[in-house]
Amino acid sequence: MVSLPICQASNSYVAKALPAGLVAVFVGGTNGIGETTLKQFAKHTRSPRVYFVGRSQEAGARIAAVCKTLNSEGEYYFMKADTSLIRVVDDICRDIKRKEKSINLLFLTTGTLIAGQGTSEGLHVAASLVLHSRTRFIVNLLPLLQQATAIRRVVSVFTATKEGPINIADMQGWKLALMKQRGHGASSVTLSLETLAKKAPDVSFIHDFPGPVKSGIARGGGGLMMFMKAVYAIIGPMVFIPNEESGERHLFVATSARYPASTGNDTAPGVPLVEGLTVARGTDGVTGSGMYSIDQNGESAGPHVEELLAKFRDEGMAGKVWDHIQEEFMRITGADAV
User: Fold this and answer.
1) Do 33 and 283 form a contact (C-beta atoms < 8 A)?
2) Given pLDDT bands bounded at 50, 70 and 90, which one contains residue 231?
């Protein structure tokens, strides 16, 4: 277990260990984990430049003002968008690519508990937000991540270490029950990131489970979401990880050398390990192999998940997940990236 004091100790070295002018993109940065991690990033880095994407202009303005108070030398740019739409993702990425030559961190937290609703592009909105949209951000911005001279990292916050069976006949989970969607979605995200890690061995990829954290994931959706909100209101104070702690833990995940890229000569692994820490085990069971599925305590997935993922690889499941994603990209945009 990576304790909170260890995370805090590592974070205290961020400004010294990493250069000024880090560029970060936060997708889903206007509430919950994205917001609190963005604030910690602003607080601990030197002269950062941050692009954060969300749906609420009001929240965006508020967060930018808070970040400016935390670090007046930083630049914070809010981008209002519905990121469930792949064409919108492309527009955002084109805008960022016009302004930046490199990116150090891509931090993704978009998601919803709403099931059974489609986007105007024909994707299941729940699947689009955690798989298709996130993957599109990564493939579009990967060349800029690879150009970074400091840390190069992608963090996708979802249900890591909860990987389960994949229903290849229903890749978007239109008909899957909620608990089956969790395992199905977790495995799909992990396998897609494994594919990307092979394409970009100089970039570190992390699929992260945050634990119970207060967020806006239960917004909208009618009666079911109203019920979920009522449940959260009752049990939340007893189980939720405090937002500030979640932000501190996720800044650690985003910056620590505990999760290096797979290249043996990684020149940008992150903040050097504080005493008591070791490099994490990748999803293939190999230490420091570049793609990590970690739990709320920063620990790698256990043997059961490693065995399941190994079975998926033997069956060619990673290729099937990737082919599905690419087919949808081509159907919607006519291109595999912008």
Assistant:
1) no
2) very low
Q: Report yes or no: 131 and 179 within 8 Å, Cβ to Cβ.
A: no
pLDDT in tens, 285-297: 999 999 999 999 9
Q: Are 257 and 279 in contact (CB under 8 A)?
A: yes
Please tell me the least confidently modeled range out of 83-87, 168-172, 268-272, 298-302: 268-272
Backbone angles phi, psi at 241, to 5 degrees: -75, 130
pLDDT given at position 215: 61
State the Cα–Cα distance between residues 92 and 79, nearest whole angstrom: 8
Query: What strands, in cross-sheet order, belong to the sheet with 105-108?
Result: 75-80, 49-54, 23-27, 105-108, 153-157, 204-208, 291-294
According to the model, what pLDDT value does residue 265 have?
Answer: 65
Question: CA–CA distance from 113 to each of 25, 109, 170, 219 (Å)?
Answer: 23, 13, 17, 8
User: Model pTM?
Assistant: 0.93
DSSP state of 256: B
Check if the beta carbon of residue 102 is closer than 8 Å to that of residue 150: no
Give residue for tokens 């192999």: 289
Q: In angstroms, how far apart are the furthest CA atoms of the chain? A: 52
**Could you tell me if 40 and 248 are in contact, meaning their C-beta atoms sit under 8 angstroms apart?**
yes
> What DSSP string describes 14-61?
HHHHS-S--EEEEET-SSHHHHHHHHHHHHHSSS-EEEEEES-HHHHH
CB 60 within 8 A of CB 54: yes
pLDDT band at 214 (very low <50, low <70, confident <90, very high): confident
